[in-house]
Design goal:
360 residues; TIM Barrel; 9-stranded mixed β-sheet; globular; binds iron/sulfur cluster
Length: 360
């Protein structure tokens, strides 16, 4: 079953650290964008079964009930949605109004990902977020009451850095089923790019990462940046990490179908003019797909099982990657019990090194 991703490239205001494809909009996203999404979804010439849908952004919680309903209709026309498909909507805490969770649930949403980022007002101001900690807590209460499956996004490494501990402690008390914790980056094409001197040292970032692991001890640290209570792993993201197929719609969205990786252009104006035009489309060969499958699985604590690899590709993992895996084990980045290769704690943090070694 494939995953379906819908990109909503609009936010109330732009956060200065963010390099996601989005632009500021005063009210709801333009109907012309929803028209374009409906056209792009309708043009997909398949009738596939989907196990997950993820509305990401940008800020999908800006969509009106009517706009979301139109997108859902288009999805149901094109996809067979599995009866227990995971359907996630990303929401900003400042958008939450009491009536919204019920509307979202009625449309079929069953998981909310809340962009909390921090529960410290100084950090939220530093990040240029529009909400404060009290607003985030109110949003958490509304979401937690309506949904038993939800995520809190958090950012570490923003000033004051030591506020991370408070955010983690308060997060534990809120007991979100899922937490995603990312280090702050200073991307070149963002206002924060010009403030790269404020970035914390690598050692300090590692200490904050380890603090998350320690404090969120009740949560399974199942992926580099993701923590889940039992049964609450994000099924949609597992599609990416298992290198399975997905269909992406909207500005800048990626798809991976029948071995073809395709990407829509990043201009929303151009997308609205011609939503079915792919900016990039690349047929991956078997070697590339095998390589990506190994790299992606090694983002997960469960790693990669040799029998699974044989079933999926009809080839032995060691025949394809034996020397690189041996080098990774010698470097202490993976552990290998002969059946399964898994990232070590160090390999989790230095995951890009694993990718580089496998690419060779
Ligand atoms: S961080 Fe989220 S809310 Fe802020 S600009 Fe980026 S996508 Fe929009």
């Amino acid at each position: 079953m494939l995953g379906v991703y819908i990109h909503v490239p609009f936010c109330r205001t732009r956060c200065p650290y963010c390099d996601f494809v989005s632009e500021a909009v005063a009210g709801n996203p333009p109907d012309a964008y929803v028209d374009a999404l409906v056209r792009e979804i309708g043009a997909l010439e398949t009738d596939l079964e989907a196990g997950s849908v993820f509305f990401g952004g940008g800020t999908p919680s800006l969509l009106s009930e009517r706009q979301l309903a139109r997108i859902f209709r288009a999805l149901h026309d094109r996809f067979r949605l599995d009866a227990d498909a995971e359907i996630t909507l990303e929401a900003n805490p400042d958008d939450l109004r009491p009536e919204l969770p019920g509307q979202w649930r009625a449309l079929g949403v069953n998981r909310i990902s809340l962009g909390v980022q921090s529960l410290d007002n100084r950090v939220l101001r530093y990040l240029g977020r529009r909400h404060d900690a009290d607003t985030a807590l109110r949003a958490v209460a509304m979401v937690g009451e309506a949904f038993d499956n939800w995520n809190m996004d958090l950012i570490f490494g923003a000033a004051p850095v030591d506020a991370w501990e408070t955010t983690l402690t308060r997060t534990v008390a809120l007991r979100p089923p899922h937490v995603a914790a990312y280090g702050l980056t200073h991307e070149p094409d963002t206002p924060f790019g010009a403030r790269a001197d404020e970035a914390i040292e690598e050692d300090a970032a590692l200490a904050l990462y380890r603090a998350a692991e320690t404090t969120l001890a009740d949560w399974d640290h199942y992926e580099i940046s993701n923590f889940a209570l039992p049964g609450r792993q994000c099924r949609h993201n597992l599609v990416y990490w298992h290198n399975e197929e997905y269909a992406g719609f909207g500005t800048g969205a990626y798809s991976f179908l029948n071995g073809v990786r395709a990407r829509n252009g990043v201009s929303t104006a151009a997308y609205m003019d011609n939503p079915c035009r792919k900016e990039e489309s690349l047929q991956l060969n078997d070697t590339e797909i095998r390589l990506e499958t190994v790299i992606q699985h090694l983002r997960l604590k469960t790693g990669l099982d040799r029998d699974y690899y044989m079933r999926r590709f009809g080839q032995a993992l060691d025949g394809n990657f034996g020397p690189a895996l041996a080098r990774l084990a010698r470097r202490g980045l993976i552990e290998d019990d002969g059946q399964t290769v898994r990232p070590t704690a160090q390999g989790f943090y230095l995951n890009n090194e694993i990718g580089l070694e496998l690419v060779g």
